[in-house]
Amino acid sequence: MITQVGEALARFSRIGALVSLLGATHALSLILNWFSINYDDVGRSMIAGYTFMEPLMLSLAAGGTAGVSCILASNLKDISKLRLITPLLSFTAAGLALLSPLYTYLIKLPSFGGLDYAPEIGLFAALFTGIAIAGASALALIAGLRTRVTTQLSPPPYWTPVREEPETFSEISEPIAETQVTVVEPTPEREPRGPETPEGQCLICGDLVSTGELEECKSCGALFHKDCMNVWVDLGNKCPACGGELRG
Description:
Elements: H1 5-28, E1 33-38, E2 44-48, H2 53-75, H3 79-108, E3 116-119, H4 121-146, E4 198-201, E5 208-210, E6 214-216, E7 223-225, H5 226-234
Antiparallel strand pairs: 1-2, 1-3, 4-5, 6-7
Helix pairs in contact: 1-2, 1-3, 1-4, 2-3, 3-4
């Protein structure tokens, strides 16, 4: 699927934000009770997610990796790098998030021996957020596999300065007198401009911009499609031609 650069960047940015949100939610599950330990005559005690060092570090690493994925997905402009980095970091965060509660349940608590423990809501919350991060990672992988950005070779925009060639002079011989006939042709009438008349070339996607879709940079006068300019405003509000603000 051939995708415009702005659309692909926005897609990876949304996926990175989703992974980061789920990673932060997983880290917050540490404050919940993951297990309850039952005693015969004394009662029971609760174990939170942060009680043991190993699950605490794994969950925090999962949340941090998800945050890094969001930062890179929002700031990188190279689609080829985003197709690799976003799924890789997202799946890493998902693996750490799932490993944290499973390690506690299957390895850490059984190592004490003879404990009568039962899972609580915090354990299920940690597992659910880990699975959700894995689902978002699958979306990032699918987006990377289906996105193929092509570079279109097109003439330079109309605002590109044209280099003038130096004037050359040659010897002019005396003309021979002859009869000259001047033919005056009628100037064709100019058709009225409609909303679909091309005005120029979009600096972002390279396609022609019609009057109905026209947006201009206030600083340099560069032309854009409305949709392309809206995506570019969300990505930083900087004109790709002059670096000025597209919208105040």
